[in-house]
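Action item from last week, closing it out:
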Amino acid sequence: AVIIKHGNYFTVYTNLAEVSVEKGADVKTRQNIGSVYLNTDDDESVVHLEIWESNNKLNPAQWLYQK
């Protein structure tokens, strides 16, 4: 899991095959933090994303980058 603190906000990423950042590192917007695990049984890749404001879990769909 990777947990990134953004002021009063936290983002949590799990189901990663590899992590590209180290504990305590500064992370920039849109920086690669790792690669998603691929389940070879069904060729499905799913990352688990949570966004928290202090102790309140938020809907991540409202925060995702739109192309």
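Closing note: Strands lie at 2-6, 9-14, 16-19, 34-36, 38-39, 44-45, 48-53, 56-58.
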